[in-house]
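note to self: dont lose this again. the chain is below, predicted strucutre after it. 554 aa total, dont forget to put it in the shared folder this time
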Amino acid sequence: MLRLLVSHPRSTPAPAALDAHDRAGLLTRLEQGEYDCLVVGGGITGAGIAREASRRGLRVALVEAEDFAAGTSGRSSKLVHGGLRYLALGEVSLVRETALERRHVHALAKHLAEPCWMIVPVRSRAGLLKFRAGLLTYEKLGSVDEADRHRSWGIAELERSEPLLRRDHTPFACCYREYLTEDARLVLANLRDARRHGAEIANHLRVEAIDVEDSRARAAMLRCRLTGTEIRVKAKVIVNAAGPWVEAIRRLEDPAAPSLLHLSKGVHVVLPAERLPIANVVVFGASDKRSLFAVPRGDVVYVGTTDTSYTGGTDVWPTIDRHDVEYLLDPLARFFDVEPVRPEECVGAWSGLRPLIAQAGKPPAEISRRDEVWIGPAGVITIAGGKLTGHRKMAATVVAQVAAALDRTLADPDPEAPLPGGDFAGEIEVLASSLRAAFGLDPLGAGRLARLYGSEAAAVAERGAKPVLPGGRVLEGEVRWSIEEEAAATVCDVLYRRTRAALYEPAEREALVVPIADRMAERFAWSPARREREIESVRERLAAELAFRNPPGA
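---
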């Protein structure tokens, strides 16, 4: 019965597994293969390129030095949006492209692009009219359906729908549609679809050198960070989609390559939902007039994001400073009827780096989010910049460059073929209700499972519907699924990028570390020392993210 409820009218083949048990076989296949295209970088840009290239018939390999979505693509605001604010910066074509792309992502995977209302509080009627004028242009660019077009709220509607907003401060609001996503899982869905079309996909595999023959990049030397194994992967074209690390890869091709990026740090903080009980995404202003988001997510609400120049290198885990957190929390009491929120009340946080294309003299908030492509002296194709929402268009641009380098005409695949998990009919609530009935989940737990896994949620639960922790939300089947279908090879992979418990489940995330490590130790035959390293690594990471709660001298 459950499968009938989630079936999609268009049949799609089951995606091939990214099985972490097959590590040795994967490395052997990579070394013995000859690929049309080797993609370096397992964020949303690289994942999109691997998917589009493999669907067009190219032999593709993708490698990621850390884990998939371990960097920028797992640390975003989790919004598929057109970038309304970029209209004011004159980025009309960028806004048009990304506004239209929202609908396409929604069509491919409704669970990973769920419609939501963005509530923008406004001080005056004149301000409301001005904002609506911008929205009319935005909705026209994005071909927004009539039912999803913006609407205005006065005091009465604010009191009914978002009573926590301070109506004395902002007695009006404008509401418009965007989409909530789960960024790391959108990356995984693209990678699994690429695998379904024959691509070889590997995480924890670092590029250490690029072999150049007859002035052309023909292979990459890689080292497995899990086993120390070194391999050489041959490819006719190498694509550098390494996000904040693109310059490190460029300098493997050309040590004299000039700097092209301006790195910006984005911090988000997580609060208990009862501390900021909102029903919709609320947009409000920071002290410097930048727009911030407050986003409800199950038992928590997260607030973000900062946008500051980052000069601390390319650390996978950028530091979260107390002043970053105070910047995000300071405006809350001005816009919401709450007591001032202190950093010590945060139950989680994350930070990431944006690889912006440098523009001299501009601060990060004013730098264009447009992507750019460069071709290096040995033919390596590099892409940087861009937005998560526009990843499909970025991928198409790069694949066209690959096709030109190969002198090949590529087939056009079905643009409507859903991503793994996206082939279900009806709304996400219907799917969640089915899961509730079939597996005895509570409403929030069923909704969480549906939003993370879509139509595959039942298959996940069938591998173990019992919670890892008594009374918890993360299921036994999720740990198995992470390993057997999504290439999770470390406890951090499972806790942060697969189950997302490190971000949204503060009540159980620390208690999950040991049981997840125990299950992975059994599955992978880890030594006691390896198991202990995994536990300590994740515990240190969780503590470091909340170190701002303990200021110096406290």
